[in-house]
Design a protein that fits this description.
The complex is a heterotrimer of chains A (275), B (326) and C (317).
Chain A: H1 2-10, H2 12-29, H3 31-34, H4 66-102, H5 104-119, H6 122-133, H7 137-164, H8 167-174, H9 179-215, H10 227-234, H11 242-270
Helix pairs in contact in A: 1-2, 2-4, 2-11, 4-5, 4-7, 4-9, 5-7, 6-7, 7-9, 8-9, 9-10, 9-11, 10-11
Chain B: E1 4-17, E2 20-33, E3 37-41, H1 48-55, E4 63-72, E5 75-76, H2 82-91, E6 93-96, H3 100-103, H4 110-120, H5 127-140, H6 146-151, H7 159-172, E7 177-181, H8 189-206, E8 209-214, H9 217-223, E9 226-231, E10 234-240, H10 241-246, H11 251-258, H12 294-298, E11 304-306, E12 309-311, H13 316-319
Parallel strand pairs in B: 3-8, 3-9, 6-7, 7-8
Antiparallel strand pairs in B: 1-2, 1-4, 4-5, 9-10, 10-12, 11-12
Helix pairs in contact in B: 4-5, 4-7, 5-7, 7-8
Chain C: H1 4-32, H2 38-43, H3 49-58, H4 65-77, H5 91-126, H6 131-143, H7 148-162, H8 175-204, H9 207-214, H10 219-241, H11 243-256, H12 262-271, H13 275-303, H14 306-309
Helix pairs in contact in C: 1-13, 5-6, 5-8, 5-10, 5-13, 6-8, 7-8, 7-11, 8-10, 8-11, 9-10, 10-13, 11-12, 12-13
Classes of the chains: A mainly alpha (275), B alpha/beta (326), C mainly alpha (317).
Amino acid sequence: MEVLRYLLRESKTGMAGLAIILAFISMALLANLIAPYDPMNAVLGDARQPPSPQHPLGTDELGRDLLSRIIYGARTTFLIAVSSTFTAFAVGTALGILSGYLRGAVDAAVNGGTQILLSLPGIVIAIIFVALWGPSLVNLIIAIAIGFIPVYIKLMRAATLQVMSMEYIQAAKMLGLSNLKIMVRHVLPNVLPVGIAQLSTDVGFAILTASGLGFLGLGLDPSIPEWGAMIGSAKNYIFVAPHIIIEVGAVIALSAIGFSLLGNALRDYIDPKRR
Amino acid sequence: MQEKILEVRSLTAKYVTRKGEVPALRNIDLEIYAGERVAIVGESGSGKTTLASILTRLEPSNLVIEEGEVIFGGRNILEAVEEDLREFRKKEVSVIFQNPSESLDPLYKVGTQVIEALRAAGLNGGRKELRRVAEDLLRKVNLPNPSRIFESYPHELSGGQKQRVAIAIAIAKNPKLLVADEPTTALDVSVQTKILELLVKINEELGVTEVLITHDIGIAHDFAERIIVMYGGKVVEVGRTEEVVADPLHPYTKHLINSLPRGGDLPPGDSRVVDFRIPRDGCPFAPRCPLASEACRKVEPKLTAIDGRLVACHNLRAVKPQSFEV
Amino acid sequence: MNLKPLFFIGKRLASMALIVVGVVIILFFLLHLAPGNPAQILAGFQATPEVVHQIEVKYGLDKPLYVQLMTYLTNMIRLDLGTSIMSQRPVTDEIMARLPNSLMLATVAIVEAIAISLPLGVLAAAKAGSRFDAAVTAFTSIGVALPTFWTGLMLMLLFAVELHLLPAGGIGGPQNFILPSITMAVPISAPIIRVTRNAALEVLEKPFVKLAIAKGLSMREVLMKHVLKNALIPAVTLIGLQFGVLIRSAVITETVFAWPGIGKLLVDSIFARDYPLVQGTVFVIAIIYVAINLALDVAYVVIDPRLRSGVSTEWRF
């Protein structure tokens, strides 16, 4: 709650980010109430219409109402982005804490793995994975998650090393608490805030990666309303019906901006030096 | 009387922070004479460092000068535009900071930084000629093997050596005024004395007017001909060093002197606890003063001339005849 | 003679070689454990089992996986990356034909990003709290969040389709660089500005900056000579960490602007199931990563003399 107070008082941009995110989330939750049309309803005669009173954002290449597809698309897109970042967050946090806490051989192995993952950029892994395993929802989530893991390992490892120098960790060790207990009870709560700021930024990045994959033709099945997939099927009409890409791209940008603004504000909150 | 080189008139300033405004200087009046060595003494929070930063116009951006003038060379430097300020900095005034490890840029060789100062001061010439001048400067501040020092990076020198380099940079422009803010605080005791001796030598040989800012009245005594004591953003006592030290008039000065060798017996005012918001009215020292009366808490004492000195205290008559024990 | 630097360089090279081998192994499994028989895919689904078998033999796909891996690794050491299935040309040739295009585009983009970000970050710090600062800070949040394909397409629609000022894509003269390099520079520059601004804010508080002002230097000299250089180390570190973003923007930018580089080659080869080419392209990307990090190590030492006296052998993370 103190975070909210900070955002309200000190960070207009952070509040703006939070407002954008909340707007998108409510849009996703209330999709069936606010969407004017069925997002699946194709009327081929109305294909690629520019914005009009009937279709405020125009129609897509199959004559489906673009506004409705964008509203419903928020559901799938946010599901992909949030699941993939949380997966990466969980895996990266576990490995980062283990590596920072145990040091030694585990640390060296995790370090090596991180270096390898860093030199194998997320988009490359995602392209290969989705192309070979097929663009299912789960594959998309895993593919995007892998690319984020090294960031969390590094962040959490550094944070753990810092926490390890604190007296209460030594005290907990003296008490004979098991390593697992110390890691879960004493290290984890202290390193989490660092990860959460990163999490906000990365949900935005995940939306970008998903839409990038969509653009490359590696999105979900185009019948499903999902922003990346919409980009993928609309890009061939960029010169005929530019409004589809312009609008969907703007929506993707706006949502990612929301997460990026909030993430930066949270980072400043955690590190008062930067305030 | 000697020629005034600098004159501060009713200078009042405050810091503006997120949490509100903090008064920093209250109605400061003082004069610095050409060629003298003067020390401004006070604990942290007394405003001495703020004052020093204004004298060199290097004050932090959140300091607001509410009122007053600082006259240097016949002009109010508080009203000077950027261009005039640069002229003032290039030729007339120099500054030395507390922490020598941070006052040199870690990424450039010492020589480069000395030459930068020489160039800024208007010295033209090739690198070879400037290097000779720079090495002369390094020799002047008693650095052994100037050509080695010239080629060194700051991290390769000791604290004392770095402070000598900082002094060399300060005198590169042949300044009229040198303001040294706690120049020895970060150094070993043995080095402290040598740096002070160097500053005295520079004053005597080059005739540079020197203002030393210190929390240590002992250092002020070793260095200065005149002492200005500050407390709570105010000047509380001004006088010749021997007189002030031998016979302090203001209770705060007395406290400083008493706490010198054997520890004071005033309530040990922790400067972090004492903040200016407490004595907005009256004498800032009143909350800690054993002689404080109702008048002290209500009416701010003015700096008054007495026996060739200036003191701001209501209890002077009480103080003077029967010297009180604090 | 001091052998420490040599030791350091040797150790660094060895660990980097390990990274590249690790990448190759992971990639190998990623490709070979994927569902579907690659030989069948290559031959087409109407192909007879004999044809499929011929292809398996031709590409060594009939051998056990570990034998295939060992063969690949040994060939890799000899810089033999195999033959492209699409073009039947050596993978090395295919890559070398595209690599310079990518390197040129990326270099132009990075130079643009740095040339804009460093001064902007330092200026924003020098004017902290001003409107200019607020605008720059807002850009740092927005810049990273713009989808690269979208920035690219918007620039293309505006400057190529509407205004006919610049070519819409392909490779050619210097004017072909403008739109793709700007597209790539946007997501790289935003974080550099942010880091530079924060670092510069800290540097501005240092006494040596005040001393530089006290010398009578102009604000420009102070910012450029002292603040910028001291804020450079965090910015340089970030450029290394931005590798993933760089490759992502390269892949997408090259696709948007039909730029014949290795990003587009990777996408094309993946769709064609041209495994040798995919593997070779990713191998080259890993080498570039390693090379960038080595270059940054040199950059640190060039920038900061303190690093020259005691060479750190620790893994820099």
